């Protein structure tokens, strides 16, 4: 069954915190257009929330916030998700897997508005099937994160070896 995105959630852009309002030792993560951008002592989302970047070059990127987070206005928060119809993480993976370019407007600066989100339809399965899909995709995500961590550590090893060679005066 396909449903319109706006039938299962209420997209909203929250107040944007200025950079100077972010706190180095704040209690809660602040999400901007592309993930965590800082900390703040208040949150506006108690539960994990699906976010869509709604301004700029990365317009249409999809993220999932952590619980107890502040979501800035550069991301469209898909609030009030009806989880009797659609699991939060299923919506996250579904939106990551589709082309959102038809929802983007604006020529000078790309943007996604509520009007653009009206064009998005979500294919829903029963909650058990959604849960199976989420479980499988979460396992794949975990493997990707492990591999990326290994790559990062190998890159650090290469850099350290290069620096060691430079410090020893060895020719490469």
Describe the structure.
There is one protein chain. The protein has four helices and eleven strands. It is an alpha+beta fold. The protein has two domains: 2-124, Adenine-n6-DNA-methyltransferase TaqI, Chain A, domain 2; 126-172. A four-stranded antiparallel sheet has the order 2-8-5-6. A hairpin with a 5-residue loop joins strand 9 (104-105) and strand 10 (111-112). The radius of gyration is 20 Å and the shape is globular.
Give a quick set of tags describing it.
alpha+beta, 3-stranded mixed sheet, Adenine-n6-DNA-methyltransferase TaqI, Chain A, domain 2
Brief overview, please?
The protein has 172 residues and is of the alpha+beta class. The chain has helices at residues 5-8, 88-96, 114-117, 127-168; strands spanning 2-4, 10-12, 28-32, 35-40, 50-53, 62-64, 69-71, 75-79, 104-105, 111-112, 121-123.
In spatial order, strands of the major sheet run 2-8-5-6
Total domain units: 2
Order of helices and strands: EHEEEEEEEHEEHEH
Assembly state: single chain
CATH topology-level fold name of the largest domain: Adenine-n6-DNA-methyltransferase TaqI, Chain A, domain 2
Number of strands: 11
Q: Outline the low-pLDDT stretches.
A: none
Strand content: 15-25%
The CATH class of the largest domain is Alpha Beta
Q: What is the first-to-last residue Cα distance?
A: 61 Å
Number of helices: 4
| Rg, Cα atoms, Å | 20 Å
Sheet with the most strands?
A: 4 strands, antiparallel
CATH superfamily of the largest domain: DNA methylase specificity domains
Q: Which overall shape is indicated by the principal axes computed on the Cα atoms?
A: globular
Structural class of the helix and strand makeup?
A: alpha+beta
CATH architecture assignment name of the largest domain: Alpha-Beta Complex
